[in-house]
Amino acid sequence: MENFVPSTLQSEGINELTISRYFQTMNTGEFHLTAELFGESGVMYPPCGEAVVGGEAILNYLEKEAQGIKAYPRQSITGNTASGNSRFQVTGKVKTPWFGLNVLWDFALGENKEIISAKVKVLASPKGLLSIG
């Protein structure tokens, strides 16, 4: 991703509708609506595995891998990339049926507010990851 120039720190909710809808639709399991938030060539970078490109591929991935997962965003930083796209970095927690993890979501939005990319990064040390199992 491009360099990030932060401009606003937000800790109570997320003011960008697309990002808010991402979390709402993920948490309700409406993955077809989540996938529709991505631009035609939008990319999702899951914490493990290869990049997933395009709405249909993102939908298939979420239906297979995101069942029962809940996302709890806590704090966000907004800004712009060097090319002028909006960028949002959101920290929070993901809970699965088996464990919870602290994560960072890194979103880039195009001028039409579609998601260009969404990268999910696990915020844990290797030792912390080993203690999950």
UniProtKB/TrEMBL annotation:
InterPro entries: NTF2-like_dom_sf, NTF2_dom. Residues 19-112 form the Nuclear transport factor domain. SUPFAM superfamilies: NTF2-like (SSF54427). Pfam families: NTF2. This is Nuclear transport factor 2 domain-containing protein. It comes from Mastigocoleus testarum BC008. The lineage of its organism: Bacteria, Bacillati, Cyanobacteriota, Cyanophyceae, Nostocales.
